[in-house]
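Researcher: Let's do a round of design. I'm pasting the structure tokens now; please hold your answer until I've finished.
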């Protein structure tokens, strides 16, 4: 609650840096707009109507509020998908125009999208698990053909090119496989 009220500038900077590197969740209550902008990647607002959540920086939330107040946009629930936080959050914003009562709708849609993405990723991994052994066999066969035709220069140059292309395709498949497993 009001973490910057009673500390000097140097202490404030140390606190800011520590919180920026903290990997957990911090719930802070502050009127210090600069402090909030530097650290917040989600803004909760309390009102007589309840609690509203906005995922994004403080400045993004203020801009959304200005649009609502000017009538450009109806009250909405916005979600920023990003692995970044604070002033570094830089991604697309999805907005549901149903207001706070429609919050469950975007969560369901988001959950379905994540499930679809996970299903597609699993299917592609399964497909790659079949393609990689085939590509490995092709690289091996071409390598053996290169060795078998070591004295035939014309045939050898074509086989070397085919072997290099096959190896590049295998490397690409393996890289994609690793990236999908890390996701």
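Researcher: That's everything. Go ahead.
Model: Designed sequence:
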């Amino acid at each position: 609650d009001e973490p910057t009220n009673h500390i000097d500038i140097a202490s404030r900077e140390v606190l800011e840096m520590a919180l920026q590197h903290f990997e957990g969740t911090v719930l802070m209550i502050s009127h210090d707009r600069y402090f909030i902008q530097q650290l917040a990647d989600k803004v909760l607002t309390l009102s007589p109507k309840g609690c509203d959540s906005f995922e994004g920086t403080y400045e993004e939330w203020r801009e959304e509020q200005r649009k609502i107040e000017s009538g450009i946009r109806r009250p909405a629930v916005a979600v920023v998908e990003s692995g970044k936080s604070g002033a570094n959050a830089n991604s697309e914003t999805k907005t549901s125009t149903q207001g706070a009562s429609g919050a469950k709708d975007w969560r369901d849609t988001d959950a379905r999208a994540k499930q679809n993405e996970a299903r597609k990723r699993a299917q592609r991994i399964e497909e790659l698990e079949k393609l990689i052994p085939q590509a490995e066999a092709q690289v091996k066969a071409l390598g053996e053909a290169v060795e078998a035709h070591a004295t035939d220069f014309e045939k050898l140059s074509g086989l070397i090119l085919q072997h290099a292309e096959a190896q590049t395709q295998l490397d690409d498949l393996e890289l994609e496989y690793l990236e999908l497993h890390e996701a």
